[in-house]
């Protein structure tokens, strides 16, 4: 039998929880929803654009009444619940409507705080919370002239802006001398005030309201200093109070909000609570991003998956006043233990401040140029060490050696036809439409529905900006801790730590110890788990073919038509007439349609049908070739230039250095692909400074460079150190590679890995600590023992033959 | 009904697949971790990718070309992707896997 779930509060948090629950267990509950507002569920944060006539009520509906019908949900709209009987497990509304529950969700949101001054109950004095309030403001704008908004915070300024757009003369009254003092510091607050004044908004600040004047309807406002101003409409936007009176009257423990634990349960385990009405770990929230995180966790427990925990949120704010760019997050005031980094350009109205503590960003305020808001916020939440990028931090992500996408992303100015995602051909208009029509809130939703940002990911920043612009000032950014995939709540780092610390040596052990939700994982987690096990237990763990993406399973690259390409190793890119003739013979014998030099200095044989792979490999391996690993999250190519062997500028023997490195490192599995290069002099013809590990020979030895990347987002390497001998090059290369193999997340290339952990950290482990360097090298060499076996030869000789032979039906 | 025995269960790797050629194109035969068997035409509804080469998980397979996830039972793509790879009834009896191949489809050796 279905259990009965009752939801009190038809707002953003309550309905988000129901939506998340329907995704997980659509049949589990018979659901009843009570909402005191007479509508379906709408996007409250978009009331400001509605007030400013930039959107209509229809635009901001999230779930219309048909949605409830389609999902078999009983909606009691316009019904205010006044009683929860926890013994009989029943809720009762004002008009007597009752519903029984097995589980209950309280999502009653909050109420606008009304200043307790004389006259606060006069007609024309309202809060700013729901459609009803907006209707009253729009009505007032048609008949009256003077509006006063009390409160110079986010809500107050959005209300003032909307009323001004409706033609009213608006004065904002604020107690403090800085606008939005909870989100902005004084300089940013001043810039904001100036640009709002330029638009015609008036300010009285600091000013304290003493009395609201009027007979029936408000006519004016009196301040403590005696000043009086005219007012036909007063909007109070001085704060919100969590709405928990109903919960309290039912005997649930409340403090500043309805108290819940990490699974969003109240003190009565049958009763959950989400949204602005709750108090979690002493915090209450007034933005949607935390509510969405709560909804996910709550739904997970209602579905009895029982794995998720809500651990609090760090929030950021943007102001939804068209034409004003403002972003703020974290602790932006700082104290004696913090330092500020400030950039100010008064002429262009740009102000940026970052608050740094222990080399980490703990707060940010951006005004006038907010393009890097999401990036700073990410660094803040990840606790990234910024020592290595300090000098360029304030100039933004575009200045971090990223030449590919560092241009000016004024997304708002882009036409709908502008292509945002080059991989999947998705235009700005497609993304905006999907967000509006399908009611998308998160980057993952947009990826799933439009495919934008789902392939190479280089347009993620643009998509996030479009999302933020379309759904409003805030939207649910990726949670701080990102699970590996839907099979688990654990992150890559937790997975790596558990395998190491608990000595987990099989997939099954991992799934059990970490409470996997699926029996055999999925295409996202299985390859990751397989890699981590392999990297940690090279001698004991046996590679699992079923956890390998096809290219790695069959040691060739799948092509669009289902055929494969074959790239043999050409050590250091140096070949011989004999080798070339052998390749030519193989290509002719097997009628290979395309033979091409790759961007990695070797030869690609394209268009081989799967069944023919073992035969092609057999012939190549007879001729002395081994697999080039062009398909793997593994060691790829070692590019070299001719160097001192021939070149008039060459300082060292770069060809033979490259060959040595390739013979030493080939076969090794990595978190992502790994490329090397050796250039014979600083002219750098082998492009060593965009490789994962690059060597640039100089007269006195070898400069070692790490963390470079061509590809999607170009990143030049960081200089690691200089060494004197070839042996040292090998030692450092092994140590660096092994550190990356042991600590990076699966599918994280060296470039983003180094940006995350910091070059300083890598230097500490590889350069400064000689003992550790040797230990890393030793572990690398140990693991190489098990992998330098040519996979092509094995398969040509019959291994895994089921892969390459179709089944046949024997007659009879 | 025309149940045709095509192989022993052991000939298909667990969480893997084999293909069998037919007059209507390749058929992919999958084996799950709980030893259930399913068969689909080996053509992804997206751009025709060979589903037999994908990663099998639960009762689903992920296409190797662009990661669409396909239900093994019905051939339907998992939302929000839309499309269907045609499925063929498959069964396991006494360790033997057979497919329901009607007259229009003949297995070619
Ligand atoms: C064959 C080759 C193109 C060519 O005809 O020259 C190639 C082909 C592919 N590259 Fe590449 N890349 C090739 C050199 C490069 C280079 C140049 C280089 O290595 O100096 C780069 C930029 C350098 C770098 O990696 O930093 C390069 C950056 C990429 C990227 C972006 C990686 C990144 O971190 O941004 C991808 C996508 C990915 O890995 O996710 C990619 C992915 C691919 C894939 C594997 C796409 C796929 O998943 O099917 C292509 C496989 C085709 C095939 O079957 O062979 N390929 N690719 C080159 C093979 C080199 C080799 O001998 O092994
Ligand atoms: C104008 C405006 C702009 C905003 N802008 C932003 C922004 O840019 N970014 C951001 O992150 N956040 C913004 N917010 C805040 C955001 O809207 C709230 O955080 C969010 O809506 C809270 O969700 P909730 O479900 O907790 O409460 P609500 O959405 O308020 O839902 C609670 C619902 O419960 C109903 N209810 C209450 N008691 C009962 C009862 N006893 N019986 C039945 N029903 C009941 C209420 O009528 C209400 O519909 C804004 C808010 C406003 C008002
Ligand atoms: S070979 Fe590389 S650059 Fe060329 S189409 Fe494929 S992935 Fe893109
Ligand atoms: S062809 Fe299968 S996902 Fe594209």
Helical fraction of chain B equals under 10%
Number of beta-strand segments of chain B = 10
Return the CATH class of the largest domain in chain A: Alpha Beta
> Which strand order spans the largest sheet of chain A, edge to edge or round the barrel?
5-2-1-9-21
Query: What characterizes the major β-sheet of chain B?
Result: 4 strands, antiparallel
What's the structural domain tally of chain B?
A: 1
Beta-strand proportion of chain A: 15-25%
Could you give a short description of this structure?
The complex is a heterodimer of chains A (812) and B (109). Helix content of chain A is 32%, strand content 21%.
Explain how this protein is built:
The complex is a heterodimer of chains A (812) and B (109). Chain A is α/β, with parallel strands linked by helices. Mean pLDDT of chain A is 90; it is low at 401-408. In chain A, the strands form eleven sheets. Chain A has a five-stranded parallel β-sheet with strand order 5-2-1-9-21. A five-stranded parallel β-sheet of chain A has the order 11-18-12-13-14, with helices on one face. In chain A, 46% of the residues are buried. Chain A is 32% helix and 21% strand. The longest helix of chain A has 18 residues, at 726-743. Chain A starts with a strand and ends in an 8-residue tail after the last helix. In chain A, strand 34, helix 20 and strand 35 form a beta-alpha-beta unit. Chain A folds into seven domains: 3-110 and 242-302, 3-Layer(bba) Sandwich (FAD/NAD(P)-binding domain); 125-238, FAD/NAD(P)-binding domain, CATH 3.50.50; 325-399, 2-Layer Sandwich (Enolase-like, domain 1); 411-471, BFD-like [2Fe-2S]-binding domain (Arc Repressor Mutant, subunit A, Orthogonal Bundle); 492-548, no CATH class; 551-622, Alpha-Beta Complex (Sulfite Reductase Hemoprotein, domain 2); 635-785, 2-Layer Sandwich (Sulfite Reductase Hemoprotein, domain 1), CATH 3.30.413.10. Chain B has strands at 3-8, 16-20, 27-31, 37-41, 55-57, 60-62, 69-71, 87-88, 90-93, 96-100. In chain B, strands 2-3-4-8 form a four-stranded antiparallel β-sheet, with no helix packed on it. Chain B is mainly beta. Chain B has a single domain, classed as Rieske [2Fe-2S] iron-sulphur domain (Rieske Iron-sulfur Protein, 3-layer Sandwich). In chain B, a hairpin with a 5-residue loop joins strand 3 (27-31) and strand 4 (37-41). The chains are: A alpha/beta (812), B mainly beta (109). Chains A and B meet through helix 17 of A and strand 1, strand 2 and strand 5 of B. Bound molecules: siroheme (SRM), flavin-adenine dinucleotide, iron/sulfur cluster and FE2/S2 (inorganic) cluster (FES). Residues 557, 559, 565, 567, 596, 598-600, 602, 604, 628, 630, 636-637, 673, 675, 690, 709-712, 749 of chain A line the site of siroheme.
């Amino acid at each position: 039998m279905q259990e009965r779930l009752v939801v009190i509060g038809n707002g953003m948090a309550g309905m988000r929880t129901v939506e998340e629950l329907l995704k997980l267990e659509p049949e589990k509950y018979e659901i009843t929803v009570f909402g005191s507002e007479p509508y379906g569920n709408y996007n409250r944060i978009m009331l400001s654009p509605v007030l400013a006539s930039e959107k209509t009520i229809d635009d901001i509906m999230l779930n219309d009444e048909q949605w409830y019908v389609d999902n078999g949900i009983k909606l009691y709209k316009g019904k205010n619940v006044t009683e929860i009987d926890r013994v009989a497990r029943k809720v009762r509304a004002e008009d007597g409507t009752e519903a029984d529950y097995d589980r209950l969700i309280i999502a009653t949101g909050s109420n606008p705080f009304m200043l307790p001054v004389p006259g606060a109950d006069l007609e024309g004095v309202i809060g700013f919370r729901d459609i009803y309030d907006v209707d009253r403001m729009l009505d007032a704008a048609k008949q009256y002239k003077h509006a006063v908004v009390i409160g110079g915070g986010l809500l107050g300024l959005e209300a003032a802006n909307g009323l001004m757009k409706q033609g009213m003369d608006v004065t904002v009254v604020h107690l403090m001398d800085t606008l939005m003092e909870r989100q902005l510091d004084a300089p940013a607050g001043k810039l904001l005030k100036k640009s709002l004044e330029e638009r015609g908004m008036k300010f009285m600040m600091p000013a304290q309201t003493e009395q609201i004047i009027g007979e029936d309807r408000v006519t004016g406002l009196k301040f403590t200093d005696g000043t009086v101003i005219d007012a036909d409409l007063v909007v109070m936007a001085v704060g919100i109070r969590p709405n928990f009176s109903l919960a309290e009257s039912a005997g649930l423990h409340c403090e500043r909000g309805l108290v819940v634990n990490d699974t969003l349960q109240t003190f009565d385990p049958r009763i959950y609570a989400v949204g602005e009405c709750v108090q979690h770990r002493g915090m209450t929230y007034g933005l949607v991003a935390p509510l969405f995180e709560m909804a996910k966790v709550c739904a997970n427990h209602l579905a009895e998956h029982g794995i998720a925990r809500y651990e609090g949120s760090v929030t950021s704010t943007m102001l939804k006043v068209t034409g004003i760019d403002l972003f703020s997050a974290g602790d932006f005031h700082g104290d004696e233990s913090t330092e500020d980094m400030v950039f100010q350009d008064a002429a262009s109205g740009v102000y940026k401040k970052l608050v740094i503590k222990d080399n980490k960003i703990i707060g940010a305020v951006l005004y006038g140029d907010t393009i890097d808001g999401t990036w700073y916020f990410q660094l803040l939440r990840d606790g990234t060490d910024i020592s290595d990028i300090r000098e360029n931090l304030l100039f933004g992500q575009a200045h971090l050696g990223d030449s590919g996408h560092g241009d000016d992303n004024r997304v708002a100015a882009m036409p709908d036809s502008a292509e945002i995602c080059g991989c999947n051909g998705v235009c700005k208009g497609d993304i905006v439409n999907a967000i509006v029509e399908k009611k998308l809130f998160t980057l993952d939703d947009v990826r799933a529905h439009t495919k934008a940002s789902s392939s190479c990911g280089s347009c993620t920043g643009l998509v996030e900006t479009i999302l933020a612009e379309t759904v409003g000032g805030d939207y649910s950014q990726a949670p701080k801790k990102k699970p590996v995939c839907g099979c688990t709540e654990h992150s890559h780092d937790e997975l790596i730590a558990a395998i190491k610390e608990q000595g987990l040596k099989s997939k099954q052990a991992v799934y059990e110890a970490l409470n996997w939700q699926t029996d055999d994982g999925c295409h996202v987690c299985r390859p990751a788990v397989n890699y981590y096990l392999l990297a940690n237990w090279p001698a004991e763990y046996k590679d699992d073919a079923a956890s390998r993406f096809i290219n790695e399973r069959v040691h060739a690259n799948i092509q669009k038509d289902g055929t494969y390409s074959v790239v043999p190793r050409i050590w250091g890119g140096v070949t011989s007439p004999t080798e070339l003739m052998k390749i030519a013979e193989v290509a002719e014998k097997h009628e290979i349609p395309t033979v091409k030099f790759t961007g990695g200095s070797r030869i690609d044989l394209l268009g081989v049908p799967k069944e023919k792979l073992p035969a092609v490999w057999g012939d190549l391996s007879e001729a002395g070739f081994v697999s080039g690993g062009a398909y793997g999250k593994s060691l790829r190519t070692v590019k070299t230039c001719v160097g001192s062997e021939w070149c008039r500028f060459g300082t060292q023997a770069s060809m033979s250095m490259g060959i040595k490195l390739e013979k030493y490192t080939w076969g090794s599995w990595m978190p992502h692909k790994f490329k090397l290069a050796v250039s014979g002099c600083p002219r750098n013809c082998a492009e060593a400074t965009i490789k994962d590990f690059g060597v640039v020979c100089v007269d006195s030895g070898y400069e070692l460079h790490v963390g470079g990347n061509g590809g999607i987002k170009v990143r030049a390497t960081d200089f690691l150190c200089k060494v004197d001998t070839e042996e040292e090059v090998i030692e450092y290369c092994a140590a660096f590679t092994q550190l990356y193999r042991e600590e990076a997340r699966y599918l994280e290339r060296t470039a983003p890995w180094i940006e995350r952990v910091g070059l300083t950290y890598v230097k500490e482990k590889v350069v400064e600590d000689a003992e550790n360097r040797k230990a890393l090298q030793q572990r690398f060499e140990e693991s190489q023992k098990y992998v330098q076996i040519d996979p092509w030869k094995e398969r040509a000789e019959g291994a895994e033959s089921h892969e390459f032979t179709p089944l046949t039906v024997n007659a009879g | 009904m025309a149940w045709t025995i095509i192989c022993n269960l052991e000939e298909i790797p667990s969480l893997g697949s084999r293909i069998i050629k037919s007059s209507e194109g390749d058929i992919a035969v999958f084996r799950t971790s709980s030893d259930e068997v399913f068969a689909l035409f080996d053509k992804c509804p997206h751009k025709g990718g060979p589903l037999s080469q994908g990663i099998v998980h639960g009762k689903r397979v992920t296409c190797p070309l662009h990661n669409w996830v396909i239900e093994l039972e019905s051939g339907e793509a998992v939302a929000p992707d839309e499309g269907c790879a045609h499925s063929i009834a498959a069964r396991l009896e006494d360790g033997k896997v057979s497919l329901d191949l009607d007259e229009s489809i003949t297995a070619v050796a």
